[in-house]
Amino acid sequence: MDASFTAEQDEIRRTLRELLHKRCGPEELRAAVGTPAGYDTALWEAFGRQLGLPGLALPERYGGVGCSVTELALACEESGRVLTPGPLLATAVLAAPLVLALGTEAQCTALLPRLASGELTAALAVPGTALATALGLVGDNRGDWSGGGRAGGVQARRADGVWRLYGQAAQVLDGHSAGLLVVAAHTGGFARSRTLLFLVRAGAEGLVRARQTTLDETRPQARVELRDVEAELLGGDETGSERRGAAGSGVPGALAAVGNTAAAVLAAEAVGAADRALERTVEYVRQREQFGRAIGSFQAVKHRLADVYVAVQAARSAAYYAAWAAAKGERVGPLALAQALEALRTAAAEGIQLHGGIGFTWEHDAHLYFKRASGDELLFGPVHRLRGHAADAARLFDGGEVAV
């Protein structure tokens, strides 16, 4: 493994950091999350048309840039530094890879170029609060999380050659503004019980979406209700599709693969946020004086910040390795995400503490990072479950003893 970055990767980071420095300061951030979309649409257009970020990891034949997960992770690390709100995670990290993995050639040709350019945004909708489970981050995703043939979840039925969905999905990232929904639904009853993925366009009859109040406003979420909504099976007709395996039993595997990649990207994003939270704290303790000297000169403060620095650097190494390993098919993303979320939580909490009285005011920028840490752990964790599932998958413990 070559740990050094290429000139192209360094250029991606530099260009994006300069753009975000100009367009996504604290005031711009607070203004953007207050809009109906929940993000700066002009900045998103710049992401798509000028930088090609939504299509960074998509093949060139579908309008993408053709880069790897590493480039996407580096881009998200920069966006994480300033907590940029926007549909990059929902579109480029969660939805587009599923379309690429499971979609028919016609579906890929029709959707991926629009997703790659940022013209079309997308969101992954899973029932209830099962996003982490659906992505295989905290447990086996071959269970009945999509509905299981019982009331609740999202159910799919086919009549007269048309698929129709009914049910509800909560905590859908950017689901209120996405032009396309990739919906996980249960079908087949008890005899052929399985989870399939369906495409639902914005404006479909019977589709009701409402933006939810969230702890972290930079991660807009929506409740999606499907009231007998007509949908298109991702992968085409099961009886004659070229992607027959993808449309059926391959769905849990595809979701788990996307979950591993998403975990690596989210880890890099959390590292960016943690690094910036630490920088802000260091800047403050160098300026704030107490007893006639800067509080950053006190040994206790130095030790606390040194511990945060070590945690952030360790998380950065784990995130970079996870992004590199994702392209090799290695599943280490959840472990890297656990370490990065822990580092972000620590950096944000220490930032609030060391900012003193002003840090405890809800309006202070330090709380934006603390909310991101807490919100992401609620969505994709918690940390102990990420690590526990990774240990189970690796069979680290067998019968109470360490496997040799």
TrEMBL record:
Its cofactor is FAD. This is Acyl-CoA dehydrogenase family protein. Residues 6-119 form the Acyl-CoA dehydrogenase/oxidase N-terminal domain. Residues 262-389 form the Acyl-CoA dehydrogenase/oxidase C-terminal domain. It comes from Streptomyces siamensis. Keywords: FAD, Flavoprotein, Oxidoreductase. Belongs to the acyl-CoA dehydrogenase family. The lineage of its organism: Bacteria, Bacillati, Actinomycetota, Actinomycetes, Kitasatosporales.
